[in-house]
Amino acid sequence: MANKSAITFMFAAVLALFLVPIADAEAIGWNLELYRNAEYGHKILDRSGVGDDDCSNLFENNSASSMKYTSSTCKIWLYNDRHCEGKVLGESLDTWNVPQFSDAANDKLGSFRIRC
Predict the structure, then answer these.
(1) In this structure, what CATH number is given to the domain that contains residue 66?
(2) Positive or negative CA dihedral for 21, 25, 49, 39?
(3) How far is Cα of residue 29 from the mean position of the Cα atoms in its chain?
(4) How far apart are the first and last CA of the chain?
(5) d(Cα 90, Cα 64) in Å, to the nearest integer?
(6) pLDDT in tens, 62-111
(7) Are strands 88-92 and 53-57 parallel, antiparallel or unpaired?
(8) How many domains, the chain?
(9) What is the rounded CA–CA span in Å between residue 74 and residue 36?
(10) pTM more than 0.90
């Protein structure tokens, strides 16, 4: 029969195999990709985080036409003005892929906010 410390070590090693993928998935949090063109053409932003992004202005203001947002725990708001002001163009608390922004939002995105 194996001694107690060897059994404890084996249990810890097996447990670690199951916990590593969970920790990696939680560390992702959210990912936002913005594209200048429809159908995800010409990426202009690729940002990820594990917590809030209080407000980020687009470097290329008002030039996004499509996006991919991945998260199951963080809500995103898209604003037409910089500094997360002005009209809310859209919001989501889940994965949100938009191959072509509507006429109301196309080339009008100025900033975004993410809250987890």
Answers:
(1) 2.60.20.10
(2) positive
(3) 6
(4) 49
(5) 13
(6) 889 999 999 989 999 999 999 999 999 999 999 999 999 999 999 999 99
(7) unpaired
(8) 1
(9) 24
(10) no
Share of the chain above pLDDT 90, in %: 71
106: its two tokens: 């196309």
Domain-embedded: residue 12:
no
In this structure, what token pair is assigned to residue 56? 């980020």
pLDDT at 59: 79
Burial 55-79 (b: 16+ CB within 10 A, else e): ebebeeeebbbbbbbbbeebebbbb
- Tell me the chain's radius of gyration from C-alpha atoms: 20
> What amino acid occupies position 116?
C
3 inside domain: no
